[in-house]
Design brief:
8 strands, 228 residues, three-stranded parallel β-sheet, five-stranded mixed β-sheet, alpha/beta
């Protein structure tokens, strides 16, 4: 089975770690999360370049602020993780994410990919400082992250965590929140590349069928009415 996986570059190392023969990996820049309106066009363009020998197109994205709504594959079935965002992928399952949220609801998660290519609080602070000056930037960032109580560095086992620990600790100190290192997993990524697309964790669309927000409605309902 030949797969084309189009994914956010924040998960590049994890997907490469579990890749198997027949997988073609394409990565898009992490910054698209800040401009979700541009995501469908760029993802769609990658899909249009798919050759006829590809059996399935798989997205390494969750709903991501509706950034994948409207995307479709004309020639192949399209497979999408049934998650809101990629944190569930790094933790291995929605259940693992739910456990962490029950333990500390206000958690800001960091991974190696997010540190290198994303926008952790300190990186956003520097960006805002260049625009508005330091005092205003500190106020903006403090307001944006005021509901967080914990920063968790996720260890998927792919990297040497000590390389990124000081950076994560600095962000936690800046936010004034507790710091913790938690165990992640490659399980979700392995399911993506091996075609183990259980209906509870993945959505499989037929050729020409568009991704809609309604397909993720059960996740939204679970957030509003979590199981006890």
């Amino acid at each position: 089975m030949k797969l084309l996986i189009i994914a956010c570059s924040v998960m590049e190392d994890e997907l490469k770690a579990v890749s198997v023969p027949g997988i073609n990996l394409e990565f898009l820049e992490t910054g698209l999360h800040r401009t979700p309106a541009k995501m469908p066009l760029l993802i769609q363009d990658k899909i249009h370049q798919t050759d006829d020998k590809t059996d399935y197109v798989v997205l390494g994205y969750g709903l991501c602020g509706n950034g994948i709504v409207g995307v479709k594959a004309e020639k192949q079935p399209l497979v999408v993780p049934k998650v809101h965002d990629c944190i569930r992928l790094f933790l291995g399952s929605s259940e693992a994410h739910q456990k962490e949220q029950q333990k500390a609801p206000g958690t800001y998660y960091l991974t190696k990919g997010w540190i290198q290519e994303g926008k952790p609080p300190l990186a956003l602070l520097e960006e805002c400082t260049q625009r508005y000056g330091r005092d205003t930037a500190e106020w903006v960032i403090s307001q944006e992250f005021k509901h967080y109580t914990r920063l968790a560095l996720v260890d998927t086992g792919v990297h040497n965590l000590s390389t990124y620990r000081s950076h994560a600790l600095a962000n936690a100190t800046f936010l004034g929140v507790t710091y913790e290192e938690i165990r992640g997993s490659l399980a979700f990524f392995e399911k993506m590349v091996k075609g183990q697309w259980d209906k509870d964790e993945f959505i499989v669309l037929q050729p020409g069928e568009e991704i809609t927000q309604r397909m993720f409605l059960s996740l939204i309902e679970d957030q509003i009415h979590p199981s006890q």
